[in-house]
Amino acid sequence: MSRPRIFDKPLTATERQQRWRAKQKHPKTVIKKARSLLKQQGQTKRAARRTRIVEIAKNNVPLSTNQLYPVVYVDPPWEMNNYPTQFFSRAVPYPTLTDDELCALPVAAITTPDAILFIWTTAPKLPQCLCIITSWGFEYVTCMAWVKSRISCGWWVRNQHELLLIARKGNPPYPEPADRPPSVIHAPTRKHSQKPDEVYKIIEKMYPEFPKIELFARKARDGWDSWGNEI
Ligand SMILES: C[S@@+](CC[C@H](N)C(=O)[O-])C[C@H]1O[C@@H](n2cnc3c(N)ncnc32)[C@H](O)[C@@H]1O
Which of 72, 178, 199, 207 is least buried, going by the fewest C-beta atoms within 10 A? Predict the structure, then answer.
């Protein structure tokens, strides 16, 4: 439709409507194209993530119960079932385990009668984490909070912290007073699920002599045993 020139006759109501419809047409096409592009990108990302998860899971090995540890550090691969993954490509980039599968891990069988457990949880997973602690034969004693440098999203509050719960089995010794850390860790947010390296140092300072194992580790650490399918 051609543009009316100055001094042209005023447009009729029908012409005005035709013009309005023509204007709408263009943005709608653009939005439609953008939506379909985003959908395609989401599908590609999800397919790549699925392939990667299958590859990682090929490294799964059962947790060996040949050795006993008084210190266990765990960062579980929680299922994030509150993400509507059919719409968002935001989901964990590694295989996850259900709460029942986590409860069934033989942690009781790899720990000494007196032992300390450090286990990460997000605030929404707190009840499940407490159940897991109990099913591994431990009793919750306290927790630390990691305050992240980056704020995230959330349904009720925007998350900016994660919890490191501490639990005991039997009667392990308390750390020396000088080796007791503050309950808050301020550390930068890094890649997905990556926890601050400071935590290793904190645990090493609390229990310098005790043999330690990290479950669901993504990298080996000197002086520790590690178990995980991404090491
Ligand atoms: C939350 S991430 C751990 C992140 C780690 N703490 C860090 O700071 O980088 C959980 C890890 O558990 C691994 N995992 C999932 N299922 C596993 C299984 N059945 N056996 C061993 N590792 C598994 C995942 O692939 C992932 O590397």
Answer: 178
SS (H, E, C) the chain: CCCCCCCCCCCCHHHHHHHHHHHHHHHHHHHHHHHHHHHHHHHHHHHHHHHHHHHHHCCCCCCCCCCCEEEEEECCCECCCCCCCCCCCCCCCCCCECHHHHHCCCCHHHEEEEEEEEEEECHHHHHHHHHHHHHCCCEEEEEEEEEECCCCCCCCCCCCEEEEEEEEECCCCCCCHHHCCCCEEEECCCCCCCCCCHHHHHHHHHCCCCCEEEECCCCCCCCEEEECCCC
230 CA closest ligand 1 atom index: 27
Q: What is the pLDDT of residues 157-186, one digit of tens each?
A: 999 999 999 999 999 999 999 999 999 999
Closest residue by Cα to atom 8, ligand 1, is: 194
Q: What is the pTM of this model?
A: 0.85
Minimum CA distance residue for ligand 1 atom 2: 77
